[in-house]
Specification:
184 residues; mainly beta; Jelly Rolls; three-stranded antiparallel beta sheet
C-alpha cells in the first residue's frame, strides 16, 4: 500500500472500471477490466489525502468510441487528461469525501450529473442555499457556483458525470469557470 493510500483513510474500496468495445469483426468485447488508480488530493479543510477516481474522459461530443477498431487498440483518453475536464466532451469521476471536507466554491461550464452512492453530502450554492443529499439522491448541476460539504462524521462517495455545455450569459455577461480558494 502506498503512503498516499494509507493516509487517505477512506473506508471504501478502490473503484473497478470495466470498459467494453468491439473486435475487428464488430463483436462486443471487454477491452479493460481494472481497478482504477486513485489520484490523491489534499483539500484545504482536511489534513487527509482523499481519493479521486477519474474513470473516463472523452474529448468531444459525440464521443469517439471506435478507437480499438480504427487504430487496432483502445485509446484511454483519461491518461492524457487525468485531472481537469474542459471542453465539449465528457468526464466520469468518483470522489471520496472525508468527514468535514469542503470543496472550493466553484463553477464549471458543464452540465453535471451527481449520484450520492454512500453517506451524505451537502450542496451549498453561492448565496448560502443548502440541501443535504443522502444515498441514492441525485443532482443535476447546471453551471452554478457551488461547494460540496461533508458535514457528517462518515465518509461519503459521490459519482459525477460532467458534460460540456454552452456558457451561461446573463445581461450580456458570461458566467465563466471559477474556482475560489482551491489548493488542488
Amino acid at each position: 500500500m502506498s503512503s498516499a493510500q494509507s493516509q487517505s483513510q477512506s473506508p471504501f474500496p478502490p473503484v473497478r472500471r470495466v470498459v467494453t468495445g468491439h473486435t475487428p469483426a464488430g463483436k462486443s468485447t471487454v477491452i479493460a477490466d481494472t481497478v482504477q488508480p486513485a489520484r490523491f488530493v489534499a483539500p484545504q479543510t482536511s489534513e487527509r489525502l482523499v481519493p479521486v477516481y477519474d474513470l473516463h474522459y472523452a474529448a468531444e461530443a459525440p464521443a469517439v468510441i471506435d478507437t480499438e477498431i480504427s487504430k487496432g487498440e483502445w485509446v484511454d483518453e483519461i491518461k492524457a487528461h487525468p485531472e481537469v475536464f474542459h471542453g465539449s466532451g465528457s468526464n466520469f469521476r468518483c470522489w471520496d469525501f472525508a468527514p468535514g471536507m469542503v470543496s472550493p466554491l466553484h463553477r464549471t461550464v458543464t452540465l453535471d450529473y451527481a449520484i450520492v452512492f454512500r453517506g451524505s453530502i451537502t450542496l451549498e450554492l453561492e448565496e448560502g442555499e443548502r440541501i443535504t443529499l443522502n444515498e441514492g439522491d441525485t443532482v443535476v448541476q447546471r453551471g452554478t457556483m457551488h461547494t460540496w460539504r461533508n458535514e457528517s462524521k462518515e465518509w461519503a462517495k459521490v459519482y459525477f458525470v460532467m458534460t460540456g455545455a454552452k456558457p451561461i450569459e446573463i445581461d450580456g455577461k458570461t458566467l465563466e469557470e471559477t474556482f475560489r480558494d482551491a489548493k488542488y
